[in-house]
Request: fold
Amino acid sequence: MTADVAALMEMAIEEGEKARYHAPPNPWVGALVVARDGRVLARGHTQVPGEAHAEIDALRRAGDRARGATLVVTLEPCAHHGRTGPCTEAIIEAGIERVVVGVADPDARVAGRGLARLREAGLEVTVDVAAPAVREQLGAYLWHRATGRPYVVAKVAATLDGVVAMADGTSQWITSEPARRDAHVLRAQSQAIVVGAGTVRVDNPRLTARLGDIVLEPLRVVLGHAPASARVRPCLEHQGDLGALLDELGQLDVVQVLVEGGPRTVSAFLDARLVNRVVWYAAPAFAGSRETTGALADLTTTTLAALRRGRVVDVRQIGDDVRVDVEV
Reply:
């Protein structure tokens, strides 16, 4: 195969993105069947749970052309029976000669067994191709499988000086419509959304993910008691330890959870060091601190050494606002 494998893996990553909303709790994997001369013969991505994995989808599209070809796949193929049969056996039976893998799968049922089975059958296997990009795309899945807990994203929408509500209590809307649409993508990528009971009482949000004509309904989690009139019903109500909540959500196959608000809720997750990523939408506006509410008003940091430092992994302009992604 003459084509650059890293470039092919980038194509597989793009293919995997097509499965981002419907694949969980399975990983949103992309796969390519590539001829010896580097031509892409077929592409595939993970279907809904219980249907074809990305490798099977690509092999079916390639048909007999898969014999002697290379399979490029973002995640290690499975070698166990679950809702579907082992992808490794289908790869071997299709006559694939070489498999190029982005990253190994930490799922205890896989964890190197897929790679070993392919090598045992005589296939050439290459691993860790474009691995940083694959880990970025599959970060939530990899975290869930490694820890048993969902990947936690905390979302904040604030003025540039960090205010989420004015002195009169108003808060809608600080950020622009494009930023709010982008936040719905975050919801759609998450299988659960967490808010405090105060947010439910004040804003009474639906907490659905609205992507044009598509409306997705993740599990809604309220910290405390939601009033009977709350639009988030049915919902999961939780009081007490946040770590226990994440354990429960992990067991419910929630791969990613979005913590939306308000300041007390986001601060509590940060204080407990349970947040993986903060997505901060900053509007080009200034509110000042007198009687306004800060985005992290309940986060107490007494010394400079105690600052919750993170790493900026993405910055982009969305409409008039700026989105900053920080791993913490």
